[in-house]
Structure formats: C-alpha cells, structure tokens
Amino acid sequence: MEDKSRRKFLQNTGLAAIASATILPLSAEPERIKELFIHHVFFYLKEPNNAQHEAKLLEGLHKLAKVPTIEYVHIGRPAMTNRSVIVKDYSFSWMCFFKNIIEEEIYQTHPIHLDFIKEYSGLWEKVVVYDSIGPKKVD
Description:
By secondary structure, the protein is an alpha+beta fold. The protein is 43% helix and 25% strand. It has 2 domains: 1-30; 33-138, Alpha-Beta Plaits (2-Layer Sandwich), CATH 3.30.70. It contains 4 helices and 6 strands, in the order αββαββααββ. The protein has a 4-stranded antiparallel β-sheet. The protein has a two-stranded antiparallel sheet with strand order 1-6.
C-alpha cells in the first residue's frame, strides 16, 4: 500500500509541476505580443531564359536584402515538385520577414528598396505580391 501511495503522490506532484510550469510564466509576466509580417514577391522576368537577366536580378535581390528592417530573407526559384496546386511560372521568389507592419512600411520607402525598383524593374514583366500577417500570439 505504501508503494502505491508514494507512486500516486509522485504522479500528482509531477502533474502539478508541469501545470505550474506552463501556467505561471504566462500569468507572472506581462504578455508579449509578436506580430510577424511576411512580404512575398514573385518576379516574372521579361526574358525568363536569359541567364544574364537572371544573374542581374539575383544581384539586385542580394542588395535588397541589406535593408535593415528585414529580419530574414529567402530568395528562391520554382522547386521541382509536381502537384496540380503548385504554381511554377515565376522566375524568382523573394520572401522577407519583418517584426511588424511598421518595419515593412519602412522597408517600402527605404533608399535601398527604391534604388532596387529603379535599377532592376526593367528586367521583369510583372510582380505578384502576397503580404500576410500571422495571428497575434504570446511569445
């Protein structure tokens, strides 16, 4: 009997410790809201098979990545995946992450971004932009 009581006590104590570890920090600290903003651009080159134009746009995207409000950047090309829902008609994908919409608005008017548009926009026939913001959550 004593062994079962001890086991039960340890189980209950462990559950209480887990519950307090997950609940107390949330109630003990003020909530910190994280508002992630994602800016995803798809570039369609005028001459998609022109290696020089591809290299030039890639050069420009690497310059653009230096805008200080950008948290993370991903430059990509269409993946070699084959499912009916996958769009692969673009030349380059540019995805960048910002802490919030204010940081993204600073990016939009930053001289590096404006210079990028002026210097490289002649290479593409169109761009498609998807901006998204995640639901606010506690960090």
